């Protein structure tokens, strides 16, 4: 039997058509092997283990490692436990027809059941933005709980079920150091993720007082789902939605649910370079419903347009028009123009430029507002400083006094571009020593680095600004002897939060960081980016269009008037692979590639070439029983990755400089 589990039910709510493609090896799935999603999943396993400690002595209906999952055996095991008057069960299993669920924590008292769904997501009681309520941020979680309640009540109508979410509570702080490291992420021989609990350290906890988790009663919202007041699939009442999705999955049938361009844009069942040999569920849908041919998929479409508001996609959906050739320029016109940091192209003008370039492949060249760009760059003060941060945000904090998902800023890299063209990897900072809160030391090191000159400071995205503002708040609550000096330094670089609900201090930075991403959006457009403004998209596009950058960075470091802290003098940043320039991030060495396979590592990470991997690596370095050799190897890999991040900004800057000169 094909069982509709709670994860498949949620998938069907996102789009019923996805049920036909899920768990089929011949179809691509972009959510597989995604470092950011893997990091989030790891946090979820940790939170679940801590949540169980709120209900000690429970019975675990464990998973086995056999290739054939025994649904009936799990249900029988659960039913045996439910014979007890009072019992706590972890991963309790319930089945009704072809519906199957596992409950994270189930507490039975007589005929009353507390259904507790554990999530690593955070909430803040009383905060209108961060509290649990029925909206796009929470609706799938709430429907998940409603589905579990439905299956339990159908399988056991004698029980009265009360639903809860257990979440990371941002009103709480960790009362001890090292909470995160008490729950170690482990993978077994079948690559299944599990948790190793450090029993000796867990004895320090006085639960629930020391926990950062809290229960949230969601009964009222679940009732509104059950009555149909809240819906995701608008055409179906709650029970009807369950029945139609379960029948669809049972029959392994394509649902043919009407396309929703807003959701299609983010469909995971697409192919890319890594999955080109697999089938595309995304293509399959468009072929079935719009009769698209291969030529239609090659045509430029509105999904590629940068920052396209979801209301526009809804309008295009109603017109069944997605290809740019079928959409008039006027249809992109917004009701009101969005605010912009720099006076370059408006978002609408940039979108129309992108459309024109996409529809004119014979004129596939980048565009710039030369005079405006030149004027902007003339305001920059040499020498030019480029900085990039790496920070960790986790549900279970590393340090005492931290809230869930409060940033730990453990690394920066700093490049200087001098007036004579010399490029210096001037400074870097990293602290991966277990148990050492790095944030204040980080700011001291950054202050020492940037006070060496008065030149302009660059970031790429607002990330560095928001990160420093958070550290500012941490300093304000601290007893650091130099906190006023550090706070004043931060205020020279950052702008206050732009959140309309922000009611804190306002200030004007003397040396406000310049966001290179905003410069790109205002004055430069390269068709090779397909509308993306990520530096991971901008950089390869520049490699395709700038002979200067290609020629310069194909040479060894020693020959291009550059210094590096982490790469040898004969290192070449750009290399050819199969006639194409290889992405320098993908050519970063795998840290453990030359290690003896018999060496017992505490970490199972293979490479650090993206932000998700860097976040994971930091968490691993906090294991107090990790060898200095292994921690040092991860440290070196993190330094290389972060150095490349700031060098990428230098390359973007040099390309812009090339254009105006």
Structure description:
The protein is globular and about 80 Å long. α2 packs parallel to α20. The termini are far apart. The protein has helices at 6-14, 35-53, 71-82, 139-155, 199-202, 219-226, 238-250, 261-264, 281-290, 294-298, 310-319, 347-359, 370-378, 439-450, 463-476, 483-493, 516-523, 535-545, 547-553, 611-621, 628-660; strands at 59-60, 86-96, 99-109, 112-123, 160-169, 183-187, 193-197, 213-217, 367-368, 384-392, 408-417, 423-430, 457-459, 514-515, 524-525, 576-577, 580-581. By secondary structure, it is an alpha/beta fold. The model has no long low-confidence stretch (mean pLDDT 92). The longest helix is centred in the last third of the chain and has 33 residues, at 628-660. The strands form 5 sheets. It has a 6-stranded mixed β-sheet.
Alpha carbon gap, first and last residue? 68 Å
Number of strands: 17
Strand content: 15-25%
Mean pLDDT: 92
Counting DSSP H or I runs of 4 or more residues, the number of helices is 21
State the major sheet: 6 strands, mixed
* Strand line-up across the major sheet: 1-2-3-4-5-8
Low-confidence stretches: none
Shape: globular
Residues in helices, as a percent range: 25-40%
Radius of gyration: 27 Å
Secondary-structure-based class equals alpha/beta
Summarize the structure.
The protein is built from 21 helices and 17 strands.
